[in-house]
Amino acid sequence: MRTLADLRVTERGRLATIGGERAFRRRLLELGFVPGTEVVLRKVAPLGDPLEFEVRHCRISIRRKEAQALILEETP
Amino acid sequence: MSQAPPLVALVGNPNTGKTTLFNALTGSSVRVGNYPGITVERSMGRLRGVDRPVDVLDVPGAYSLVARSDEERIAVDALLGLGGATAPALVVVVIDATALERNLYFALQVLELGRPTLIALNQMDAAERAGVQVDPTALADTLGVPVVPTVGTDIERVSALAQAIARYLAKPPPAPKWPWSPSDALAADIDALAPQFSQAPEAAQRAMALWALMSVEPTDSAAPPALRTSVAARLAAAEGAHRDLDLEIASARYQWIDDHAADFVTRSPTVRLADRADRLLLHPIVGFAAFLTIMAIGFQALFSWSDPFIGLVEGGMAALSGAARDVLPAGIVADFVAEALIGGVGNVLVFLPQIALLFVFIGVMEDSGYMARVAFLMDRIMRRVGLHGRAFVPMLSGFACAIPAILGTRTLERRRDRLLTMMVLPLMTCSARLPVYTLIIAATVPATTLWGVFSQQSLVMLGMYVFAIVIALIAAAVLGRTVLKGRREPLLLELPDYRVPSARSVGRLVFNRSGTFVREAGTVILLFTVVMWGLSSFPRNPAAAAPLEAERARLAAAQPAGAEPSAALTELDHRIAAARTEHSYAGRLGKGLEPVMSPLGFDWRINVGVVGAFAAREVFVSSMGIIYGVGGDVDEESPSMRRRMAEAKRPDGTPVHTPLTGLSLLVFFALACQCMSTIAVVRRESGGWKWPSFMFAYMTALAWLASFTVYQVGGLLGFS
């Protein structure tokens, strides 16, 4: 089972399930991280955390820990 | 009663250029104040270039109207005129064309409220460079509300927006309709909750119901109990039916956006310039080298470049004080004006060079887009102690002075992050501690070298810097887990495009911050200065100084008129000053503190210095000068002062200033909250006396305990 945190830079993935604590999960949903959406990992901070993602043509950075709760669809 | 001018609320996501637009719309008429009840700044200004008065309110940026914290709650209250706010006659949603979808999500929430709304489609130029073409007419048709394309820095486009605002105030646009249709199940939830919002405008009731489904927690004590119960019931029912309401609502809005985006936006693939720049600036080696260079420049500005300006302020104040003494007859009035009043104003103005330089630095970093990268680079390190990545800049500035650094915590958005940073900032080794450290180290640490290379004195100095950093980080970790616990907020960060900082907006920041400091913290600093002056100047002529005064009169009479004062006379003047200080209220306080402070190795003379240092740490040096009878105008390098300190004895004949006392005193100065200006600024920035009182209490207690441990354990181990 792969999560957003497992993406390599410039790799794409399609969101399957959005997990995490309610308040932050809700916030991510509102930023466009909804199931079925394609997400690209754009940057990794020099110290390995946080990560910058592109979702619906917008960029947002979150920490690895939170990204691990966003699960990707299995690629066929 | 005169009618208040109509109110226009400017809302939008963070980083949409909303504040730039607000500044351009209102010009220099901005009034900065706090929102009722909480200390989040509220900016209000008059719309420029229209023929009748219109007030514009800059609502803090938010990604969503779903709100948990005080700061975010403002957006909802401001839009609907709840919680004592005035309802806006027109809402202007600022949309960033470069992040259209996410911005539209927020716009949909506003449209759902059914208020008269106008969309300002901002950053069209940046969007075009990024290959994004947005058709404003098509967007207006799709959303059913007027859309005005803008560029925050383009005067013509801004004035077109101002005209549009005036036009739509005179003739309101049709109330927006709910753009998307909820599913039947969701509609049932909304209809069930809508009656709970009978106090809101009718058109907004269903939107508020939807808002409550996402915002109100069953455990939320701030919401009305009836609303809480109903929301909890709907949430439970939804869960029972395997529905996920948060996901349903967010997905429905994005579904609408995805379905309609093709009508108004076309994209051509381009490489983002910021990505190229970030390949270097966020590179593990090049990026950190650039980061360190930039920080070093900022630190240099604060530490060295401010020096000439500080000298200028001090020189000017000294001249003013001298002039006052020339004009006024010698006596208490002249002393009060020259020392307390002019001295107090000087104590305020002396911070301005560093405050201005720090805000030039912060302003350039924020405006250029680099500040977000600082957070991106430093997050991993800073969060280990519970601090925000952005807190790095104020913490670094703390090495120069805590005052500008505390003002600099405004770069942090959350109140809890700001408070935590403020509480530990005064532990950083500020430049006012340097003269104190220099004097104590010179007087108590032997000037020997270790292994023939390292001077023992400079090692102690270095040790004090390391000690302060370690303690500050520990304090942050402890306070962040106890007093300032708060909900753990995961990081959410946007790395905006780089751009050339605008001199106008940096200038505005510097001007506003300096002004606020002088107005609001300045008055408290002035008051403290007057009180401290009173404590060290009264009673005016203690009996103990009378014999010395008589002798001075005799000597002065014996001296030929117009001659330079003799050495004996100067010496006597110093002894009189010492006697006056010893018997002043501050001196008595120093003596009264002996039972508390002697376990730290401090005698009454040190205590007087410590009490006086509350005015400002560096005052310790001149207090020591007065007490040891070498005059108040000594500096920390004065050899006669060091000799007197080295010769000073306790009643039992042992020397006062031993290496162990020195170390204990150094530790005390490193940790104690010995700075009234810091307290004044924290009061202003935290909006009350609670946090500065806490800060003073915890730092003083920490200082006492640490010095006690050093002195007592050191003594047990046989050091002296």
Q: What is the CA–CA distance across the termini of chain B?
A: 76 Å
> Structural class per helix/strand content of chain B?
alpha/beta
**Extended strand count of chain B:** 11
Query: For this entry, what is the oligomeric state of its chains?
Result: heterodimer
Description:
The complex is a heterodimer of chains A (76) and B (720). Chain A has helices at residues 22-30, 64-67, and strands at residues 12-18, 38-44, 51-55, 58-62, 70-72. Chain A is α+β, with helices and mostly antiparallel strands and 76 residues long. Chain A has a single domain (4-72), classed as Ferrous iron transport protein A (FeoA) (SH3 type barrels, Roll), CATH 2.30.30.90. The mean pLDDT of chain A is 92. In chain B, helix 7 (184-193) crosses helix 8 (205-215) and helix 13 (307-327) packs antiparallel against helix 14. Chain B is an alpha/beta fold. The longest helix of chain B is centred in the C-terminal third of the chain and has 35 residues, at 503-537. In chain B, strand 5 (90-96), helix 3 (100-112) and strand 6 form a beta-alpha-beta unit. Helices cover 60% and strands 6% of the residues of chain B. Chains A and B meet through helix 1 and strand 4 of A and helix 3, helix 10 and helix 16 of B.
Summed up:
The complex is a heterodimer of chains A (76) and B (720). Chain A is an alpha+beta fold and 76 residues long. Chain A contains 2 helices and 5 strands, in the order βαβββαβ.
Compile the SSE list and pairings.
The complex is a heterodimer of chains A (76) and B (720).
Chain A: E1 12-18, H1 22-30, E2 38-44, E3 51-55, E4 58-62, H2 64-67, E5 70-72
Chain B: E1 7-12, H1 18-26, E2 31-34, E3 41-46, E4 55-58, H2 70-80, E5 90-96, H3 100-112, E6 117-122, H4 124-129, E7 132-134, H5 136-143, E8 147-149, H6 155-170, H7 184-193, H8 205-215, H9 225-240, H10 245-264, E9 265-267, H11 273-281, H12 286-305, H13 307-327, H14 332-349, H15 352-368, H16 370-382, H17 392-397, H18 402-408, H19 415-424, H20 433-444, E10 449-450, E11 454-455, H21 456-481, H22 503-537, H23 546-558, H24 567-583, H25 585-592, H26 594-597, H27 604-612, H28 619-627, H29 639-647, H30 659-671, H31 676-686, H32 690-716
Parallel strand pairs in B: 1-4, 1-5, 5-6, 6-8
Antiparallel strand pairs in B: 2-3, 3-4, 7-9, 10-11
Helix pairs in contact in B: 3-10, 7-8, 11-12, 12-15, 13-14, 14-22, 15-18, 15-22, 18-31, 19-21, 20-29, 20-30, 21-30, 22-31, 23-24, 24-25, 25-27, 27-28, 30-32, 31-32
